[in-house]
Structure formats: structure tokens, C-alpha cells
Amino acid sequence: MERGWLHEYGFFLCLILHLLLQGRGDTFTINCSGFDRHGVDPVAFQAVFDRKAFRPVINYSIPTRVNISFTMSAIVEVDAQLQLMTSFLWLNMFWYNPFITWNPEECGGIRKISIAAENLWLPDIFIEEFMDMDQTATGLMVYVNSEGLIKYDKPMRVVSICNLDIFYFPFDEQNCTLTFSSFIYTVENMLLGMEKKVQEISNTSQDLIRSKGEWVLLDIHQRMMKMTVGTNQYDQIIFYVAIRRRPRLYVINLLVPSGFLVAIDALSFYLPIESENRAPFKMTLLLGYNVFLLMMNDLLPATGTPLISVYFALCLSLMVVSLLETIFITYLLHLATTQPPPMPQWLHSLLLYCTSPTKCCPTAPQKGNKGLGLTPTHLPGVKEPVELVGKVPGPREAELNGCPGSTRAQQEYEAQKRHLVNLWIEFSHMMDTLLFRLYLLFMATSIITVIVLWNT
Ligand SMILES: *[C@@H]1O[C@H](CO)[C@@H](O)[C@H](O)[C@H]1NC(C)=O
Ligand SMILES: *[C@@H]1O[C@H](CO)[C@@H](O)[C@H](O)[C@H]1NC(C)=O
Ligand SMILES: *[C@@H]1O[C@H](CO)[C@@H](O)[C@H](O)[C@H]1NC(C)=O
Ligand SMILES: *[C@@H]1O[C@H](CO)[C@@H](O)[C@H](O)[C@H]1NC(C)=O
Ligand SMILES: *[C@@H]1O[C@H](CO)[C@@H](O)[C@H](O)[C@H]1NC(C)=O
């Protein structure tokens, strides 16, 4: 008897449970009969549309989970002055609306329908770095499937603020952030999640950005965060968008011409200083370089001090220094040939030491020879022919010249003066070579420094 009762009781329990479960499974909120014959009945959705002002949940203490993902389709512009990055995103959002469910079998197999987005509650996800009016197109649609999963896609032109560091200018990489968050819903009401892996987002975006613009998308990383404001906590997803500039334009238009001009400037040291061409030549180069800088100014970032500006300043100062050097040497030569001052003893011995066969001091072979073998007839300012060092005309020659009247003392004085002039000329050439080498050394170190800085 007892067993039978138990058995009966169990049976009823099963029946009730079964009915309950079946009943639950069948509580479709949308009566979709006739959708396949007469089209969607707006009356069936009216109850849902009327609720659009409220977050669609049955139990209000359960947060709505919104999954987001995006595809970056273009990097339009990166503005270093305003610190803005303009990009194009296709934002996808997914969430459940439990008030929209129907039975696909009853509706002729309709599994998803599209609804105008303005009729439904939409999550207020925004990008915190956004710095522009939202120009999202109106009249967008959402897809709803029979389980109430809503898929909302919208294209966005995102002008986001980004901390741009232009120090390494044409070879720079930037790391911009896009922070997705809800505007008002705290974590008790809304949770954010990822629809797909960030690596997938990065891969599809890289495939999509096929344009050969200035910027290359390197990678996208992601981090989940909770932002606390006062007592409220907001869910956040931060995306780090790493981009790199294509430097070719700048290398061809800025670095190469500048390098050529400096190279020509360095080579112009081989113009003989006596021909008086060197200074005008360097002057012209300097002028040309200034014109080049003026023309290329538009290509440089308007703010900050990138390394490339330092490089340009360096090139300019190298040119100025070389011009100054030429002026100095020209002045020295002029002084030597018109009124040579007495040479200090130490300088004389240094000169002798340096021109001795075992050279230790910087005298380029050709230049040194030229300095020694110079016939100062070519020199401006030297009227009388002056002979080579050490070849002081002897008394016999002087007698043969038919100037017996000119005293021996005067001749000796003349010879000494010529010797002095030659010494000074030699000294000038030595100075020229020495300064040229210093210039080369300085140029090499500074350029190597800049290149090393660029590579770090
Ligand atoms: C669905 O609506 C049709 C009329 O449009 C009605 O005949 C039917 O009884 C309704 N079904 C349910 C389960 O309410
Ligand atoms: C609503 O959800 C909360 C938290 O999950 C739960 O404690 C509460 O019982 C639920 N209310 C109802 C009426 O189901
Ligand atoms: C969001 O993603 C999580 C796991 O990634 C998943 O469990 C959940 O169902 C998703 N929600 C929606 C609305 O897609
Ligand atoms: C993304 O692409 C890389 C190679 O380009 C591949 O190794 C990786 O598996 C891809 N990831 C996904 C999620 O597709
Ligand atoms: C971008 O910056 C964030 C934080 O500053 C860092 O975690 C991330 O690794 C950076 N990404 C790249 C590619 O440098």
C-alpha cells in the first residue's frame, strides 16, 4: 500500500516536473504564427517595442552581458599636432533580449529577422578617447534570432585622442588606446565581454587594411578593466592599437637630399683654397640647404622636437662651421701673403717637426705636398715671385741679376720674408687639413649617434 502510494507520488512528481519543464520551454514571448504566410505581424512585437526605454531583463538584479568586437577597416589620419588618430571601425555588439523569443518550427523555420534598431533598447557603449561628434548613420538595423540574441553592427568614424610620441619621427611606432565602456551602466547592470579573440580582431583588421597609406597596423592587444568612479564601478575593455609609420616618403624626401648636401659640403674641402672658389661654393650650398628646409617644412610634424629636426640642425651647423673654417683659412692665407707676422718659435719648431719625413701630425699627403711645392705666384696678393722653402737665392745669383747696388742685407731680408711667407702658407694648409679632419670626425660621430638613437 505504502509502496504504491510512493510510486503514485513519484509518478505525479515526474508529471508535474515534465509539464513544468515543457511549459517553460514553450514560453515564447512572440506569437509568430503566420509570419511565413502574411509577413511579420507588428502587433506581435508591440509589447517588446513598448519596453525599449528599459533594460531588457526579467530579473533586474541580473546584469546584461554585452559582448563586443570590432574590425578596423582604415587608419585615415594621425595628427601629431592635435594628438588625434582618425580610424574607421565596424563595431559589433551582442546581447540577449529575453522578451524576444519564438518557436522557429511554428513560423515556417524563420530563425532570425531584422528589426529597425530604433525600436529596441540599445546598450550605450562608447569609446572614452572619442573626440568628435558621433556621426554614426541613423536607421541602422539589428538582427534578432529566435533565442533573443541581438546582433547590432555599426560603422564608426573614430577620432580618438592618442598620446603620440614623435621623437623618432619618420621611424616611429605609436600605441593608441580605444577604451570601450558603458556611459551610465555600472557593473551591477552591465558587463562587457569579448565576442571573439583579440588575435582574430587583429588578423581580420590587418587583412582588411589593404590601403597603402602612411600607417601600418602592427597589432591589437586587449585588457579588461574595472574603472571606479566614486562608489560606482564600470566595466571597461581597453584595446591597444599599435601602428607604425611607413618611412619611405620621408627617407627619400628628407634624409637622402640632406645627406647629399652634407656630403658635397664635405667634398668641397678638396677645392683648392687658393682658387677662391671654395667660400662661394659653400655659401651656395648653405643657401640651397635653407631653401630645401623651407620646402620640406610641411612634411615635418608641427609640434615637438623629433630627432630629425636635430639631424637637420646638425647638418646646417656642419655647413656653417665649414664655411667659417674656409673664411678663417682664407684670412690666414691673405695675412701670410701680405704682411706675415713673425712666427712664434714653438710654431716654427712644430711646423718643422710635422713636415719632417716621419710625420705624426695631420697633413694629408696631397695637401702637404701641395703646401710644400706651392709656387706662390698663384697666390693672390703676392706680387713678386717667391721661391721654395730652403732655396734662398745665393749672393752669386743676386750679383748675376745685375743688382749689385742692392745690398746683401736687403737681399737677406727679402729671403727671410719669403721664407716666412712660405712657412705661414704651409701652416695654413696644415690647419686646413687638421680642421677638415676634425670636421669629418664630428660629422661621423654625430651621424652615428643619430642613427643609433633612431634604432633604439
Ligand atoms: C497567435 O495568434 C493567432 C492569431 O494571429 C491566434 O489564432 C493564436 O491563437 C495565437 N497563438 C497563441 C499561442 O497565442
Ligand atoms: C533575481 O536574481 C537575484 C540574483 O541572482 C536572486 O537573488 C533573486 O532571487 C532573483 N529574483 C527572482 C524573483 O527570481
Ligand atoms: C558573451 O561571451 C561569453 C563567453 O565569451 C558567452 O558565454 C556569452 O554567452 C556571450 N554573450 C552573448 C550575449 O553573446
Ligand atoms: C593570426 O595570424 C597569425 C599569422 O599571421 C596566425 O599565426 C594566427 O594563428 C592567427 N590567429 C587567429 C586567431 O586567426
Ligand atoms: C601599449 O601600451 C600598453 C600600456 O602602456 C602596453 O601594455 C602595451 O604592451 C603596449 N603595446 C605595444 C604594442 O607596445
TrEMBL record:
A single Gene Ontology CC term: postsynaptic membrane
Tagged with keyword Disulfide bond: yes
Domain Neurotransmitter-gated ion-channel transmembrane: 254-365
Transmembrane parts of this sequence: 249-271, 283-302, 308-333, 434-454
GO annotation (BP), single: inorganic cation transmembrane transport
Record keywords, A-Z: Cell membrane, Disulfide bond, Ion channel, Ion transport, Ligand-gated ion channel, Membrane, Postsynaptic cell membrane, Receptor, Signal, Synapse, Transmembrane, Transmembrane helix, Transport
InterPro entries: LGIC_TM_5-HT3, Neur_chan_lig-bd, Neur_chan_lig-bd_sf, Neur_channel, Neuro-gated_channel_TM_sf, Neuro_actylchol_rec, Neurotrans-gated_channel_TM, Neurotransmitter_ion_chnl_CS
Mode of membrane association: Multi-pass membrane protein
Subcellular location: Postsynaptic cell membrane
Gene Ontology MF terms: serotonin-gated monoatomic cation channel activity
Record bears the keyword Cell membrane: yes
Signal peptide annotation: 1-25
Neurotransmitter-gated ion-channel ligand-binding domain residues: 52-247
Assembly: Forms homopentameric as well as heteropentameric serotonin-activated cation-selective channel complexes with HTR3A. The homomeric complex is not functional. Heteropentameric complexes display properties which resemble that of neuronal serotonin-activated channels in vivo.
Chain's role: Forms serotonin (5-hydroxytryptamine/5-HT3)-activated cation-selective channel complexes, which when activated cause fast, depolarizing responses in neurons.
Similarity comment text for this entry: Belongs to the ligand-gated ion channel (TC 1.A.9) family.
Name of the protein in its database record: 5-hydroxytryptamine receptor 3C-like
Originating gene: LOC112849564
